[in-house]
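Moderator note: this is an archived Q&A kept for reference. The question asked for a predicted structure of one protein chain; the sequence and the answer are reproduced below.
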Amino acid sequence: MPNLQDEIGKKQPFKMAEEEAYLNIRRTAATLESEFGRLFRQAGLSEATYNVLRILRAAGKDGRCWGEIREDLVVPVPDVTRLIDRLEQAGHCERQRCASDRRKVYIRITEQGKRIVNSLDEPVQKSLRGKLGHIDPDDLRALSRLLEAVRSSQEA
């Protein structure tokens, strides 16, 4: 298995383990994003719109408020409203004002939106198995814990 130094043609060893880890994370993320980006584009979605549809599907008939969707996104985006606008124009979600508080707007997934996100479940799972299935589940959990530790240090 080639290491990052060989993959990128770096002649000298990394001076800092942190730099090597960071570049490994970025290179791996780019590899995964490329594969999943193709899947989502084939369905007429971006990674962000797919993520919003997954959040709305999980919310069920009650839907979610804009702020809740923003907080639940795996990868933050600067303009959630524009994402929701695009999904609504495509017929994948709908907005509805809260009867008891007209300031609140709930976003709900439509049947069409459910069909699209459901149609991606199997291809996404297949891709995940293809990219990560060769790694022991305990190692994957350890990797997740390490990545969570990186994020928690940034949030502190």
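Archived answer notes: The mean pLDDT is 91.
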